[in-house]
Fold this sequence. Notes:
- The structure holds three protein chains of three kinds.
- Chain A is of the alpha+beta class.
- Chain A has two domains: 4-233, P-loop containing nucleotide triphosphate hydrolases (Rossmann fold, 3-Layer(aba) Sandwich), CATH 3.40.50; 240-349, CATH 2.40.50.140.
- Chain A has eight helices and 20 strands.
- Helices cover 71% and strands 1% of the residues of chain B.
- Chain B is built from twelve helices and two strands; from the N terminus they run αββααααααααααα.
- By secondary structure, chain C is an all-alpha fold.
- Chain C has a single domain (66-272), classed as Orthogonal Bundle (MetI-like fold).
- Chain C contains 15 helices and no strands.
- Chains in contact: A-B, A-C, B-C.
- Chains B and C meet through helix 1, helix 3, helix 4, helix 5 and helix 6 of B and helix 1, helix 4, helix 5, helix 6 and helix 11 of C.
- Chain C: It is a multi-pass membrane protein.
- Chain C: It comes from Rubellimicrobium mesophilum DSM 19309.
Amino acid sequence: MAGVTLRGVRKAFGPLQTIHGVDLDVGDGEFVVFVGPSGCGKSTLLRMIAGLEDVTAGEIAIGGRVVNDVEPADRGTAMVFQSYALYPHMTVGQNLSFGLRMNGNPTADTERRVAEAARILQIGPLLDRRPKALSGGQRQRVAIGRAIVREPEVFLFDEPLSNLDAELRVQMRVEIARLHGELGTTMVYVTHDQTEAMTLADRIVVLRAGRVEQVGRPLDLYDDPVNQFVAGFIGSPRMNFLAAESLGGGRVRLTGQGGVEIALPVGRGLAAGQKAVLGIRPEHFEAAGQGDCDLALVVDVAEHLGATSYLYANTKAGEPVVVQAGAARSAQAGGRVAVSIPAGRAYLFDPDGLRLA
Amino acid sequence: MRRRTGTAYGFLAPYLLIFAVFWVWPIVYSFWLSFLATRQLPWTFRPAMTWGRLAVDPAFVNALKNTLLILVVQVPIMIALATVLAVLLNSSLLRARGLMRFAFFAPVVVGEVAYAAVFRLMFTADRGIVNKVLEAAGLPSVDWFSNPTAAMALIIMAVTWRWAGYNAIIILSGLQSIPDDVYEAATLDRVTPLRQFLFITLPLLRPVILFCVVLSVIGTMQLFTEPFLITNRGGPGGATETLGLFLYRQGFTVLNFGYASAVAYTIAALAVVISLLNLWLGRERA
Amino acid sequence: MTSRSSRRFWRQVGLHAVLGPLALIWLLPLWMMLVFSTMPENGIFSPDIELLPKGQFWANFQELQAETGFLRTLFVSVVVALVTTGLSILLTSMAGWALVRYRFRGRWLVTALIFGTLTLPYFVVVIPQFIMVARDMGLQSTWFALIVPPLFNSLGVLFMRQAFSMMPGELFDAAQVEGVKEWQIFTRVALPMAKPTLAALAIILFLASWNNYLWPLLIASDPTMMTAPVALGTLIGFTRVSWAAIMTGAVLLTLPMIVVFIFLQRFFMSGITAGAVK
Lengths: 357, 286, 278
């Protein structure tokens, strides 16, 4: 088993630089998730670890060994692809054993490994079928099985669940978490879905435009985002952002609310008149009058899910606000509601998006 | 993707070797040849004997005229026929679809020599089946091989028979890529089938038809076997002599490689110019 | 409702009234080829219109065989077509694979060169090819001369490149990560997945080689190395052999291709339309 270390890793396609110097340490046995919007470079970074893309500058080390010039097959990694990449003309069993057979692995050992992978993933009965005859979830298991038989030191997952429907995605998510518990192997996992990141990761790496925005444990990112991007990306529904303006002395006025004010200690650093953004998660609103600053909202759409309700509403200035309201069953589209922001739950960002703390 | 120049050329090497030896080098070599007087040894640089001769050689001018005539008459007829065939063969009303398609598509697999032999025999002036049928219908029989116009018509018919189905296959595949709902919408709008053909099908087929035209132009510029075998080496008296046949004569009967190369490059240049002209005429007008 | 179905009926009648006779005319040359090949020579030129086969095929063929050794030329044709097809498929699929799978120096140039020749008239290269093979190499009337120069074709590369680029690249990446050698990825993963394309390409290449006329005419005039179309071509217009005998040769050249066409029509169609789809 081994950890993965990235030092100043850059990637350029001609003049176009897509990865701008990434430093990262993935511990042995750790489950690290790269998350970010599409085009942020997370898949490229993973493919560089796998050896499918050249490293333009910097160093990638696996288990302490620099692998920049090591062939993909010799890096001790195994990869699970977004499209599963199952060979359509081979049975499940042949798919699992193909790489081992091509490399002259002893037959008995190959069979043992295939049987073991089939046991772990419960795909024994499928070994003689072709990929075409499998469901999406079964294909996904086979793709993972193909990685397992390599007995790698590091598993690499490239958006493995994005082709599954919602229900299966949850199911496979649990499976992968179980697998990590069972194998204890280092795993690097790429996704654009922050829920997957939150539920699976020991640590999350949030990427944007080829740069690391923040690295941390899921709840640390949730509680303590370093900037507006991370704050907006982690958490679902995403954090609400309201235009604000500093009044000096730690008081902030919500400009879209016609002068509603709130006292936020973190705003002390801002000079009077300076613009800022106030962030508040949908689940942190309180009933009107109970927080530190009331907002009057017009409900656009109300989604009542039973256990909870989501109100998609607008402020007077037309800023969209989502409110998670456990008890607001009565709210209807077109209706008015008042909610309150508790100062302790509010975040404040400067105009560059950096969080003020 | 990782840059792997070595592996790539490993896969490309055998193909590129053949390509370099038997295509790239000949392309260069024949261009050089086209400036050499090759009637006797040693070959000397005398463009007047090759390029200079083209304009004043009546046999070349005759072959050029014949080729352009075939181009202007045969290609439009064949493409129009192929388009109509494709539309009709695609009709949902058609019965015996397999047999019908076979009738028009089968010529595609027939070799030039075999079909030349049959056409030659069928059109024999004296008791050929075509003339027998004409006479039985009360029409005058035609002297297909000694009447220049009839010989030219025969070449045009033969080429059309051989290639109409080929073009129809391509156009048919173009037709099948037009979504059905376009026609369903038109039908709901009370557009008649003929108007659907004119205002929906034809415009949507334009790129495919242009592709067929370009292919046919290149093919016609190289027409060789039909006049060589059906009308007996471009007969009567050069009436069906084409550029391809003229080149064959100069290159491989007289062994005047230099002059033949100049003809070859003329054919290539004409093919490019005429194809581009077609593409320009048929371009999408914004 | 009646008017609607009757309009449909008349439309259908009209369609068949146009297409039916035209189809018969189109079938006539092939049918007559068959009929002529079974007639005695005097039957072909009798004053009556004969449209049904007789029983003389075997006798006519014996005449052809005795005069020209036609079976030998058929053998040459079969060997040339098979070997050319096999080698050409190997070369073009390897080249197509390289163009899809790898980023490499000169990729743009190689691609442009190969496809630049797609529309180049063959006449531009045939003269130097002839000079090289016949004069410089002295290989006239050899298997090499018949097989190697025609191996190059850009359509095959175009075709295979298209097939490979439709396959998800992750499939090959997956094999690569598993330590499968590039040659094995090509032969064990890419080629098996390209089977329908390979079949279509094989048929098109075989047909082209089988019917090839100009190059074999130029390069293999020795009777033992003549291909069947060339041998048959030498008979047309001369009275050495009867027309009925020539027709048996034409039938033997055509019939196998017709049979292949009937049973593998799907591959033919995709082979012919491959060039049209960009």
